[in-house]
């Protein structure tokens, strides 16, 4: 929420004034912050507590047992009251400070800091009896909550509060004694028996604690029917279930009666010792499951293994693949083992094992052994994969492989290619100088493949470098990015001559450097451009070698273009002009032709275009009537664009459409001032503006956009 930034700045500035002893200015800021907090609605406060600040709410039962009213407030309400109370205290206006501290205790009765603030003020007012009861009440409430509801207070503050309670008790007793000695009370002196006094104090202490600690407890896990208990426990993640097992023996027995509750394990930075314990735990679960259902097999939805230490990767992987796999069936397996080679994994992985057959989604990060096709050895056992993500962190070629057994296989046993729907191969371009899986892409058909991502590989220099795409007839999305030697001209040659796809909806082709200009051939209806791209909805050619003439010829094939998103960022060979393109002016692209050819366009991205300036923005402004569907416009990283042209463009667009643009991205456009941004927002030309002038690290356009699934 934007108000949160204002609130945090007000608190921070007020604290600065307080430290510099300017209490009047500090108090003014805290009072404004308090008014802002009070303006929040209940729904906004609940959202802030749950989604932004992640406040651990205490149960309503706790408030009832200590006879306190539960009040849901802004998470920083009490902090502001505390700061404001401190300002009044410093100005020696203690009555105002006391009122605020009393309100703090009422809002957060289980916050030890509220009692400390209130007690200090009462001590300054010499109200020692009230201060003593304040500290005593705070300690009793918080100790009860910590014992019954696992509230974890600060030991340091609890100790300080206990010390203050003892100090104020002595001060109160000394004050009473001095009054007696002064003769203000002429009552008869009484002899106090110290032993009797201790007995009375002990009885009083037990009586005070009885209200909080002598309450009947109900163990819902023990009392509820097992069917209902298991239904509740299914809502709890396995990690929390493991913690609940430590509460008591009864809870452990109930949870272990349902091994199916443990269906997801996500181990980030796991050690070898933890892996051994996990293996022992699932072995125990397996035995329990056998006694209950007659089967020792455990079914997991997701299993993620990411070792903490590179030196333990091999042993952890071996335990999983050789020992644990006998009793595990898993739908989704994620392994981040960047220092383990494909040859090691191929030797460890069980052949035709029920564990590998059960896996439908596999995500793997490892090191490629480039001398043989060990990666195909690995996948041979995964017969029913539907989703495959492989990231090669490094490539290793041994100096001598004469002692290694030849285990690399061909493509005849790759049954997984029939069922695969998502396939992603991501390599570190600097360390992996090959094209993994090229052999299988060329020789096997992928009849079910819907999405294909190839990034960071090194392709051959031949013109037929994309012929393997003919084996992917069912593709809906193709993403090719940051691949060495991958030329857009060769890609277009392939889809020009061969009809491959009927339903390709999203195409991304990002070259890693500038190759020869791609202007395509003159319009020829015998070409397959239209048949391959007729269903296209998203076209991303960022950083590509396409020219204005090439785009003009490409879009001329479409009679009813369905493209809604177009990304031409960092295309050096495109320049927006009024003149039509020609062989003499290959870079020319008419905005009028572009917009009229794409009537459904709602997302236009033109970041980091060296040719995009005020003249180009003015050209788009003249054809604003062709942008009725536009909702997102990205012109970031274009320092030549100024606020004058952007304001004029948005004004014309708003005039024709009578509705605001959804999002305008002008990041790193230093010539567009914040005044212009405020004006276009105030006049309703745009709903949201992304306007960041400087960052420590800007996003590197054209680099790999895909991240590892894990």
CATH class bucket of the largest domain: Mainly Alpha
Give the name of the CATH architecture of the largest domain: Alpha Horseshoe
How far is the first residue's CA from the last residue's CA? 30 Å
Unreliable runs:
181-187, 401-411, 699-710
Query: What structural class do helix, strand and pairing data support?
Result: alpha/beta
Protein architecture, described:
The protein has 710 residues and is α/β, with parallel strands linked by helices. The chain folds into four domains: 212 residues, Tetratricopeptide repeat domain (Serine Threonine Protein Phosphatase 5, Tetratricopeptide repeat); 123 residues, no CATH class; 150 residues; 109 residues. Helix content is 43%, strand content 14%. The protein has 27 helices and 17 strands. The strands form two sheets. It has a 15-stranded parallel beta sheet with strand order 1-2-3-4-5-6-7-8-9-10-11-14-15-16-17. Strands 12-13 form a two-stranded parallel sheet. Helix 6 packs antiparallel against helix 7. The chain is flat. The C terminus is likely disordered. It holds the Pfam family F-box-like. One of its GO terms (molecular function) is protein folding chaperone. This is F-box domain-containing protein.
């Amino acid at each position: 929420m934007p108000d949160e930034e204002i609130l945090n700045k007000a608190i921070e500035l007020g604290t600065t004034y307080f430290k510099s002893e300017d209490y009047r200015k500090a108090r003014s800021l805290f009072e404004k912050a308090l008014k802002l907090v009070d303006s929040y609605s209940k729904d906004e406060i609940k959202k802030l507590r749950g989604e932004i600040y992640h406040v651990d709410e205490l149960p309503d039962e706790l408030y009832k047992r200590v006879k306190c009213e539960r009040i849901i407030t802004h998470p920083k309400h009490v902090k502001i009251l505390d700061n404001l109370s401190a300002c009044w205290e410093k100005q020696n206006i203690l009555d105002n400070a006391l009122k605020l501290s009393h309100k703090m205790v009422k809002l957060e009765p289980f916050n030890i800091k509220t009692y400390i603030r209130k007690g200090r003020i009462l001590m300054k007012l010499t109200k020692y009896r009230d201060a003593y009861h304040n500290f005593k009440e705070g300690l009793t409430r918080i100790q009860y909550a910590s014992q019954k509801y696992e509230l974890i207070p600060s030991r340091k503050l609890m100790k300080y509060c206990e010390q203050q309670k003892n100090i104020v008790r002595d001060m109160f007793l000394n004050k009473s004694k001095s009054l007696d000695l002064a003769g203000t009370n002429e009552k008869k002196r009484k002899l106090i028996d110290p032993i009797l006094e201790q007995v009375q104090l002990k009885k009083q202490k037990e009586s005070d604690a009885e209200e909080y600690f002598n309450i009947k407890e109900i163990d819902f896990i023990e009392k509820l029917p097992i069917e209902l208990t298991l239904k509740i426990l299914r809502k709890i993640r396995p990690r929390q279930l493991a913690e609940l097992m430590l509460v008591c023996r009864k809870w452990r027995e109930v949870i272990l009666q349902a091994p199916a509750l443990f269906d997801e394990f996500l181990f980030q930075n796991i050690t070898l010792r933890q892996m051994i314990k996990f293996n022992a735990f699932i072995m125990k679960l397996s035995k329990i499951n056998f006694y209950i259902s007659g089967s020792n097999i455990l079914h997991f939805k997701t299993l993620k293994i990411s070792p903490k230490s590179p030196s333990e990767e091999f042993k952890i992987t071996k335990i999983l693949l050789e020992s644990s796999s006998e009793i595990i069936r898993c739908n989704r397996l994620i392994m981040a083992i960047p220092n383990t080679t494909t040859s090691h994994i191929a030797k460890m992985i069980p052949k035709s094992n029920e564990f590998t057959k059960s896996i439908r989604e596999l995500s793997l990060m490892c090191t490629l052994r480039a001398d043989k096709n060990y990666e195909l050895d690995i996948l041979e056992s995964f017969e029913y994969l539907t989703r495959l993500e492989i990231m090669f962190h490094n490539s290793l070629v041994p100096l001598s492989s004469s002692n290694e057994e030849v285990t690399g296989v061909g493509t005849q046993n790759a049954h997984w290619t029939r069922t695969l729907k998502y396939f992603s191969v991501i390599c570190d371009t600097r360390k992996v100088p090959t094209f993994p899986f090229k052999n299988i892409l060329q020789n096997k058909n992928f009849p079910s493949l819907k999405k294909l991502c190839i990034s960071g590989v090194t392709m051959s220099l031949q013109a037929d470098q994309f012929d393997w795409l003919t084996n992917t007839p069912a593709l809906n999305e193709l993403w090719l990015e940051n691949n060495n030697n991958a030329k857009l001209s060769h890609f277009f040659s392939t889809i020009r001559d061969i009809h491959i796809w009927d339903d390709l909806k999203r195409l991304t082709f990002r070259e890693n450097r500038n190759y020869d200009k791609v202007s395509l051939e003159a319009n020829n209806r015998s070409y397959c451009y239209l048949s391959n791209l007729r269903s296209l909805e998203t076209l991303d050619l960022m950083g590509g070698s396409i020219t204005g003439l090439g785009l003009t010829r490409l879009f001329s094939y479409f009679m009813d273009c369905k493209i809604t998103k177009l990304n031409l960022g960092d295309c050096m060979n495109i320049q927006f002009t009024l003149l039509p393109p020609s062989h003499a002016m290959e870079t020319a692209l008419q905005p009028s032709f572009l917009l009229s050819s794409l009537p459904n366009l709602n997302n236009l991205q033109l970041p980091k275009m060296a040719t995009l300036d005020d003249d180009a923005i003015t050209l788009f402004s003249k054809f604003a009537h062709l942008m009725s569907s536009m909702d997102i416009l990205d012109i970031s990283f274009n320092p030549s664009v100024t606020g004058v042209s952007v304001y004029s463009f948005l004004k014309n667009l708003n005039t024709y459409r009578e509705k605001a643009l959804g999002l305008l991205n002008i990041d790193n456009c230093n010539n567009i001032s914040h005044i212009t941004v405020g004006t276009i927002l105030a006049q309703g030309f745009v709903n949201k503006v992304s306007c960041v002038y400087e960052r420590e690290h800007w996003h590197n356009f054209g680099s790999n956009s895909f991240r590892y699934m894990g």
